[in-house]
TrEMBL record:
Record carries keyword Lyase: no
Protein's UniProt name: Broad specificity phosphatase PhoE
SUPFAM superfamilies: Phosphoglycerate mutase-like (SSF53254)
Annotated keywords: Hydrolase
InterPro entries: His_Pase_superF_clade-1, His_PPase_superfam, Phosphoglycerate_Mutase
Matching Pfam families: His_Phos_1 (PF00300)
Coiled coil: none
Length: 191
């Protein structure tokens, strides 16, 4: 029995547009992000999805709610485990500001950021729990770029040495027994 997971990155925000690290800062979608979420929802409405989960951050919840309304789903379940990486001291800063404060090698410093492996562990444990608890279902999960990317890198390392996840993109995974496969990656054909 196959379980299908649709991983969705939230629509764009003003901070995305400005190149600011968002992390766990609760930034809402901007007008473009609302349009992106609507375009994705219109794409998904021709398909059957059983459940929608979302990060508890407003940009993901807004995206999930737009999808829920167009799909006619009963509700969106939120879970803190699928929220974005905590960016620590770099939250709210641009690349230019980070270089000015911490130098060009700022990525080599801790800067109170959440560990990448811990982010992947959160994502993996959520995927495992949802795919086992709702086996055979088609489940949408609205989350964030770093969480989705790091989860994919750890779930399917042979496929995803590096990842880039576009705003309002769709990645589709299937799980049959204990085997995961990626059917679609970072798709934005709905734009």
């Amino acid at each position: 029995m196959a379980t299908t997971i649709g991983l969705i990155r939230h629509g764009v925000t003003e901070w995305n547009h400005l190149g600011r690290a968002q992390g766990i800062s609760d930034i809402p979608l901007n007008e473009t992000g609302i349009q992106q979420a609507t375009a994705l929802a219109n794409r998904l409405k021709s398909e059957t999805w059983d459940m929608i989960f979302s990060s508890n951050l407003s940009r993901a919840r807004q995206t999930a709610e737009i999808i829920r309304q167009l799909l006619g789903a009963a509700s969106v379940f939120t879970d803190e485990r699928i929220r974005e990486i905590n960016c620590g001291l770099i939250e709210g800063t641009t690349e230019e500001e980070r270089i000015a404060r911490w130098g060009v090698k700022w990525r080599e410093q801790k800067l109170e950021m959440e560990d990448f492996k811990m982010v992947a562990k959160r994502g993996l444990s959520f995927l495992e729990e949802v795919s086992i608890g709702h086996a055979g279902k088609k489940i949408l999960i609205v989350s964030h770029g770093a969480l989705i990317g790091l989860t994919l890198q750890h779930l399917l390392p042979q496929l995803f040495e590096k990842t880039y996840i576009d705003n309002a993109s769709l990645t589709v995974l299937t799980r049959i027994e204990n085997e995961w496969e990626c059917q679609l990656y970072n798709c934005t054909k709905h734009f």
